[in-house]
Design goal:
236 residues, four-stranded parallel sheet, alpha/beta, Enolase-like, domain 1, 7 helices, TIM Barrel, 2 domains
Length: 236
């Protein structure tokens, strides 16, 4: 943890309790994923209570159709590791629990939840917005239109519609089909929106390293800004 709460931080704030709770929110329509469709959004909220009365809130939420199982894994880690944080300062607890958590998806999600809750606490103690602690506020954040696992013609039409609606960037979900189809999707979309609009893709951790290298080389002519998660996170 590299954040400093600012002048006046005496380092004496101690953790008295950690609580966490899983949540399930139904989606208006099922979200497509490579291994199925998700009808609900699962999340895990984390609260860190301190002896100064501040309560930091964090989130450690997996995504995808099996995210409910991911919640259970994060909760199990919290059950095992949370007692180690009692009596520590939030920043020390973050460092200790982060070192104890495994380098897996669940472990990384736990680090995220602890990180966001700790930053929240530091902002409260310093009486400053968290944005200030992170370097300041920016006026505008570019968003991309996400097009998930569409056929080439439909993807191209939806991309044109998104750009006309004001999106400066389009992101395509790939990896669940024959690589030839994925390459064709990217080609058709790029031809439809031109090269003045940013184009991104997400492999959703489907490809092996060899497959990813092959597909990414075939995508080079289409000037993608980046390709997210081309391989399994644990296999980097």
């Amino acid at each position: 943890m590299w954040l400093d709460a600012g002048p006046g931080h005496n380092g004496r704030m101690k953790i008295t309790k950690l609580e966490w709770r899983g949540v399930q929110v139904p989606l208006r329509s099922a979200s497509p994923w490579p291994h199925g469709r998700s009808k609900d959004r699962y999340g895990l909220l984390l609260w860190i209570f301190t002896d100064e009365g501040f309560v930091g809130v964090g989130e450690a939420s997996p995504v995808g159709p099996s995210s409910g199982d991911g919640i259970s894994e994060v909760a199990s880690l919290l059950h095992d590791l949370a007692p180690s944080a009692l009596g520590m300062s939030p920043t020390l607890a973050f460092d200790v629990l982060s070192s104890l958590a495994p380098h897996t998806t669940a472990g990384n999600l736990l680090r995220l939840g602890l990180d966001t809750a700790t930053v929240d606490l530091l902002g409260q103690q310093a009486i400053r917005p968290v944005a200030d602690l992170l370097g300041g506020v920016i006026d505008w954040v570019p968003m991309n239109a996400s097009l998930d696992f569409l056929e080439p013609a439909e993807a191209a039409a939806k991309a044109v519609e998104a750009v006309a609606g004001g999106y400066p960037c389009v992101k395509l979900s790939l990896g669940s089909r024959d690589p030839d189809v994925d390459v064709e999707v990217v080609r058709r979309v790029r031809e439809a929106i031109g090269y003045d609009v940013s184009l991104r893709a997400d492999g959703d951790e489907i490809w092996t390293a060899e497959q990813a290298i092959e597909v990414l080389r075939r995508l080079e002519p289409y000037d993608l800004e980046f390709v997210e998660q081309p391989v399994i996170a644990e296999d980097l």
